[in-house]
Amino acid sequence: MTLERSINNDTINTNKSLSVQISLTGLSFLATSSDNREVLFFSEEKFDNTTTPEEILTVIDSVINSNEGLQHSFNQVTLLYATNLYTLVPVSLFDEKKASEYLKFNSKILANDFISHDTLKNHDLVVVYVPYININNYFFEKYGSFQYYHTNSILIRTIMNAEKFSNEAKVYLHVQTESFDCLIVKEGKLILCNTYSYRTPEDFIYYLLFCMEQLKLNPESTEVVLSGDIKKKSEIYTIVYKYVRHVSFTSEKFSKLSFSENTEPHQHFVLKNSL
What we know:
- With 275 residues, this protein is α/β, with parallel strands linked by helices.
- It has two domains: 2-82 and 136-150, Nucleotidyltransferase, domain 5; 161-273, Nucleotidyltransferase, domain 5, CATH 3.30.420.260.
- It has helices at residues 53-65, 99-104, 133-143, 151-163, 201-214, 235-243, 269-273; strands at residues 2-6, 16-23, 26-33, 39-46, 76-81, 86-90, 116-120, 125-129, 147-150, 170-176, 179-186, 189-197, 223-228, 246-249.
- The chain has a six-stranded mixed beta sheet with strand order 1-4-3-2-5-9. Strands 12-11-10-13-14 form a five-stranded mixed beta sheet, with helices on both faces.
- Helix 5 (201-214) packs parallel to helix 6.
């Protein structure tokens, strides 16, 4: 396990927000002033191996208890679950009583899994997913009221709002450790949203080109936009650039919030756009 931490401001401010992104491969904490203009605290944990919700909770408790800036009250607390246990359902077809049935089509769920959903009315979509109930309970006991979403709910809302007047097809890839989210929009509509696991750059480009081929998108003319845990000098970027002519990163138009001089606008995309 490796820890990277930078604290921009130790000021205790009762009027502030906390967002926590949670996955089986890592954690990120972001505390900001309520106007979302100033970063008060940022911490990132990356796990060497895939963990369990129980192990993640142990790390969360350790980070919170070892950082004074996280032990005060927040006027807004948001949890973001980055898991592959999710599916999308049109609002018109969604029935909360059948939530587990939707997930069974493409995910392995347990009988005691707690199932939740995010409704994106403006985009006629419901994101059905499995949050970690032990972590929800911990944050309720620690901070009182809080809200939680699947990370793809944030991605869909943010990207669709940016592309609602666009006619051209565009591929958005949100890169994480060992997985990436692929969202493809065309004529202001979401035509694909899926998450793919990868081990090598070759795995990554295979899934990307497969998606583009299935939707008859030409790598010579279709723009691919990258965000998340990826840098221009990385092997992933190099292989994408080799096969796709138009490659870019998400810009500051999505969020002007900057963590440090070492952080680029496309990094921590979901955290910044959850505020």
